[in-house]
């Protein structure tokens, strides 16, 4: 409801705030129903090895087919899910689905799953991951968990202990959206990541931006020094791809290769790759 201010006029600011609060409440209600009916599901975006163009994994990205609004983007509902604590149940559901799907993919293909910092705070993350692996039969080495820099900001010993315990299971840990958080490099010393994903904001328009080039080049060299795989996110053009390959980036992901797709499509793509029928044609790497 719009409130009257002291001079009797309506404030657009308050009307705006109110509408936004209502929209969030509606998302929360609908999200609870979606969770209960298990309509949220992962789509998968291929991770491509630049040396030979093979799909070596896929990232699970949650999709919400909303009855009235069509597909709703995670950018819109993940923040609501985090504010309301629903992210824990959503995260567990997506993790389980992703492990179940990936268990049927070829044995050398991994699945990457995003984790919210809140999932580390509840205290049962380790058993959630162990259950998903056990129920699906997915070998731990085929699961990658993506975390963001904000998780490590607090320098919590509980978070570090959980990360080490996950790694002891054989699960791989990736640093997502690298370079956008507070990038205190000291955490790279306290935890041995398996992979660093360069945020897409540095990759977009890379070819015309000397600053981005300098940043990406130094992240690649940091990765080489640490013995960590470097993945470039958000690759959209051939020019970006060849620049990244020339600079020694090992892996890439982006609309140039594919958007996130339903499991049936990804499975088809992986089967084709496995049979050798496409001879790598799907993501042919030029003169590589
Ligand atoms: P993210 O983990 O960094 O995922 C990459 C995002 O970039 C995805 O957006 C993907 O569709 C998009 N993307 C990939 N390639 C390109 C490209 O070439 N160009 C452009 N413009 N975009 C590209 P999406 O699916 O909308 O997800 C957004 C974010 O939502 C994710 O960022 C992740 O932080 C979060 N998210 C998605 N699924 C989950 C989930 O299951 N759990 C949690 N906690 N977060 C999730
Ligand atoms: Mg991610
Ligand atoms: Mg990312
Ligand atoms: Mg992101």
Describe the protein.
This protein has helices spanning 12-36, 74-84, 87-102, 117-121, 125-136, 150-153, 157-169, 187-190, 200-203, 210-226, 238-246, 263-275; strands spanning 41-49, 55-66, 70-72, 110-114, 143-147, 172-178, 195-198, 229-232, 251-252. It is an alpha/beta fold and 288 residues long. The longest helix has 25 residues, at 12-36. It is globular. It starts with 11 loop residues before the first helix and ends in a 13-residue tail after the last helix. One magnesium ion is lined by residues 59, 114, 146, 176.
Task: Walk me through the topology.
Blueprint: H1 12-36, E1 41-49, E2 55-66, E3 70-72, H2 74-84, H3 87-102, E4 110-114, H4 117-121, H5 125-136, E5 143-147, H6 150-153, H7 157-169, E6 172-178, H8 187-190, E7 195-198, H9 200-203, H10 210-226, E8 229-232, H11 238-246, E9 251-252, H12 263-275
Parallel strand pairs: 2-4, 4-5, 5-6, 6-7, 7-8, 8-9
Antiparallel strand pairs: 1-2, 1-9, 2-3
Helix pairs in contact: 1-2, 3-5, 5-7
Bound molecules: ligand C2E and magnesium ion (3 copies).
One magnesium ion is lined by residues 59, 114, 146, 176.
Domain EAL: 24-274
Protein name: Diguanylate cyclase (GGDEF)/phosphodiesterase (EAL) with PAS domains
Organism: Rhodopseudomonas palustris (strain ATCC BAA-98 / CGA009)
